Amino acid sequence: MDNNIYQVYEDEIKALEEEIKLLTEKDEDIQQESTSFSHEEILKSIKSFQRETQGESKGHESPSDLEAQLESLEADLSFLTKLTGFQFTSHSKKTVERTRERRVEKHRLSGNCYSLSFQLEFQLLETQSQEKVSAVVTDLSIVMEPREDSDVSKFVSSVQEQRNLVTFFRSLSTYAEWLEHRRRTFLHFK
């Protein structure tokens, strides 16, 4: 009879361990999914964080150290925005499928490059084999505001077929920068 009681307890423990494992995986998925944040919402969060840390001095770092780090990060972000012309306004990520060997995430990204606005939607397939992890863009959809220039729409179609995000960002940055130079030149002569 004692063995039966122990077996019942062991079965209950195994069931609870499985439930804990499933809930942990579900919690990880929820934490990985992000919502869209606008530039203004990020700045509000930064300011809120600054206000909270000004009153707290018991942390690992002093508020002045955190403020210096924040200012450094803001300066880095400003430099990168000026250098590339990209300003991202929102991003969202959702895990579509997750197993041990592969994970599929759906990303939505929108922003501006100088005066051109864009929206991207793509799926990222990450596969893991032994100690190697690879990531591939599987679906890519690019939406840009309509322009008279048909070369831009041809370029966007080509990038969508190739599913090459690096080419898109590099080329868009160069094109938008020269478009901005051209616009300023024409304004100068008006």
TrEMBL record:
Keyword Transmembrane appears in the UniProt entry: no
Keywords: Coiled coil
InterPro entries: CENP-P
Entry's Gene Ontology BP terms: CENP-A containing chromatin assembly
Any coiled-coil regions, as ranges: 6-33
Superkingdom in the source lineage: Eukaryota
Coiled coil keyword on record: yes
Organism: Sapayoa aenigma (broad-billed sapayoa)
A Gene Ontology cellular-component term: chromosome, centromeric region
Pfam families the record matches: CENP-P
Protein name: CENPP protein
